[in-house]
UniProtKB/TrEMBL annotation:
InterPro entries: LbH_gamma_CA-like, Transf_Hexapept/Carb_Anhydrase, Trimer_LpxA-like_sf
Listed CDD domains: LbH_gamma_CA_like
PANTHER family: DYNACTIN SUBUNIT P25, PROTEIN YRDA
Name this polypeptide is given: Gamma carbonic anhydrase family protein
Superkingdom assignment: Bacteria
Length: 179
């Protein structure tokens, strides 16, 4: 894996994390316990910070980035990802906030200042525009996203199950590397 510094700040990894050797993490990035970062993920915490919560997985080819602090946005836009989040293949997350128990579908884009509350599914290929708020408990689809319908109880349960599945998978990868 490539853990690179920016201004002498290196990424920090929680307990039992897995970062695939082809992933690149740069700068002020904090991974909580049991996070998994899969092949070809690029994450740059250079002009702001990235925080990824426990049991979250970021899948192949995803790009994670931030926006610098400016006069109009004194805090800039860090990237904050909660716990038990599944970030699908080739997702772009840029200076946004994701709550807990979220599924971001393959190829989705979530832009600066967007806030995604807990228990949300974002459909594959969807675009979440800047500063958009996605309310808890719904499926969102489209470009730009629109609230499609409430999540069923089984879909809500799947959000946690998806995160648990990736914890199990990353544990298998870690075990295999230990042999």
């Amino acid at each position: 894996m490539s853990l690179d510094s920016y201004k002498k700040i290196f990424p920090t990894l929680g307990k039992n994390t897995f970062v695939h050797p082809s992933a690149v993490l740069v700068g002020d990035i904090k991974l909580a316990d049991n996070v998994s970062i899969w092949p070809l993920v690029a994450a740059r915490g250079d002009v702001n910070h990235i925080s990824i919560g426990a049991r979250t997985n970021v899948q192949d080819g995803s790009v994670l980035h931030v926006t610098r602090k400016t006069k109009s946005h004194p805090e800039g836009f860090p990237l904050i990802i909660g716990e038990d989040v599944t970030v699908g293949h080739k997702v772009m997350l840029h200076g946004c906030e994701l709550g807990n128990r979220i599924l971001v579908g393959m190829g989705a884009i979530v832009m600066d200042g967007a806030k995604v509350q807990d228990d949300v599914i974002i459909g594959a290929g969807s675009l979440v525009p800047p500063n958009k708020v996605l309310e808890s408990g719904y499926l969102y689809v489209g470009s730009p996203v629109k609230q499609a319908r409430p999540l069923s109880e089984s879909e809500k349960a799947f959000l946690t199950q998806s995160a648990e599945n990736y914890v199990l998978l990353k544990n298998e990868y870690i075990a295999e590397q230990g042999n």
